[in-house]
Amino acid sequence: MNKLSYGLLSFLSTEPMTGYDLMLKLNQFWRTTHSAIYPLLAELEEKQYVTYTIVGQNSKPDKKVYEITDTGREVLKNWISSPTDEAVRKDEMMLKIYCIQGFDGSTIEKLISEMEEKYQKQLIRYTESLNKLTSGVNNKFDSFKSQGFGSYLLLEKAICDVKLSIKWCKWIREIYSRNQEIDCIHDNFKRFQEN
Fold this sequence. Notes:
The protein is mainly alpha-helical.
């Protein structure tokens, strides 16, 4: 099975969902489409890792609500127990940072400001999500068995990561400012020597 199949089983281990709901959840981790999900759901059903129930809807087509089976849980347990591959990262912002030394001050400032703004927006979004999640359980998760505990752990990690990224942006700005001052001193000294 591919990682997307395990992703489907992971989400279905927390609650029954439609294919559309699964796509929305998965898109929080990596981009996918209906055309990728539905054949995998059919394959998981064929292997008896999931089952579905048809739910009728007024003025809409009926929908399938998928649920993980005991066999599917066993397969998921084995996957969770196996070694995890290195994460695949595609980060355009980091690529821009890699070549930052070749650009002028206004370009660098614009890039740093864009990064800070992006991280600040993420911090607001993650904090709001965490507050919403914890208010539903009176700010308390009793155990790993608590509903939503995985979401709680991921939101806490996301908030830590984004706070560190904001701090990193400020550090870059400090280095850039110091270099600007040093460059200005060097330029003034050169002009002094030339006169």
